[in-house]
């Protein structure tokens, strides 16, 4: 039973980890928590549906279109909303991100309707048994793609020029600017990168659950995973996502499916009270 819970929880955990990475990638560089990220996740899944149903694009082309538009939308948010608000109180920026999310959500409700849209998946959702464990090809694909994206992110941060610029801004924005790195340019790209991570999560999750304007609640789970792992730790975001997915699945089995969300948020509250830096978070020096 425990092994099956671990296997089942990993699928949701992989999606939560991607969203948590979106939060942490952006926050570490800009100090902004983007509470509209879950609604961007939903928008990305809808773009795939629009590309297939209304534009007649192949599945792969619709996904590519969604990722490109998601990245562009993230950059547009930074340039059009967050950059003019630079220097404003943190609460103002939080309200701005909430407003962006609400605008996306209600715009989807008005244009696409409140009813769910089916999202096809290339692999079968029919389960099969291997070594006593029940596995689903679609779920395995979700985990595999999510892990590949995570590895690509870490490889980019370590071995590319853009990745090294991000790390420099993470460590010391002033020092990065002194050596010629455009900090505002990095911020814009971080918004795009965060949006792409959320887009991948939305595209992976949409075939497995109901695609509706309210699917963005997954963003709350990603935020919880980021808090759980430590909001300044990329590995912590991944660990927090998988841990949250496994805890949710275990709660659904041993407690109640109606209670699993409550158990997840109780875990988050307990982490905030007892371990405010998260599992892998570290103390940060702040100039006051």
From TrEMBL:
Keyword Flavoprotein: no
Domain of life from the UniProt record: Bacteria
Membrane topology: Multi-pass membrane protein
UniProt entry keywords in alphabetical sequence: Amino-acid transport, Cell membrane, Membrane, Transmembrane, Transmembrane helix, Transport
Primary location group: membrane
Transmembrane portions of the chain: 5-26, 46-77, 89-108, 128-153, 165-184, 190-211, 223-247, 262-280
Signal peptide: none
One Gene Ontology biological process: amino acid transport
Family: Belongs to the binding-protein-dependent transport system permease family. LivHM subfamily.
Protein name per the record: Branched-chain amino acid ABC transporter permease
Species of the source: Caldovatus sediminis
């Amino acid at each position: 039973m425990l092994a099956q819970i671990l296997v089942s929880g990993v699928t949701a955990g992989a999606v939560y980890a991607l969203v948590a990475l979106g939060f942490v990638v952006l926050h570490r560089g800009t100090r902004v928590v983007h509470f509209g990220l879950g609604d961007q996740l939903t928008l990305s899944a809808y773009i795939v549906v629009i590309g297939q149903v209304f534009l007649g694009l192949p599945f792969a082309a619709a996904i590519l279109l969604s990722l490109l538009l998601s990245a562009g939308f993230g950059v547009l948010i930074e340039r059009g909303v967050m950059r003019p608000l630079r220097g404003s109180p943190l609460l103002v920026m939080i309200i701005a991100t909430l407003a962006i999310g609400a605008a996306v959500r209600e715009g989807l409700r008005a244009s696409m309707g409140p009813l769910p849209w089916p999202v096809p998946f290339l692999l079968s959702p029919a389960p099969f048994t291997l070594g006593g464990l029940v596995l689903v090809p679609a779920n395995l694909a979700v985990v595999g793609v999510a892990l590949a994206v995570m590895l690509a992110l870490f490889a980019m941060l370590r071995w590319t020029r853009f990745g090294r610029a991000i790390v420099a801004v993470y460590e010391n924005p002033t020092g990065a600017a002194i050596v010629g790195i455009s900090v505002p340019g990095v911020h814009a790209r971080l918004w795009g990168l965060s949006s792409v991570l959320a887009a991948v999560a939305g595209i992976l999750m949409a075939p497995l659950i109901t695609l509706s304007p309210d699917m963005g609640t997954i963003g709350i789970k990603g935020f919880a995973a980021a808090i759980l792992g430590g909001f300044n730790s990329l590995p912590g975001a991944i660990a927090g996502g998988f841990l949250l997915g496994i805890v949710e699945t275990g709660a659904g089995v041993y407690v109640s499916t109606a209670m699993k969300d409550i158990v997840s948020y109780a875990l988050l509250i307990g982490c905030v009270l007892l371990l405010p830096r998260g599992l892998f978070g570290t103390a940060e020096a702040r100039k006051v």
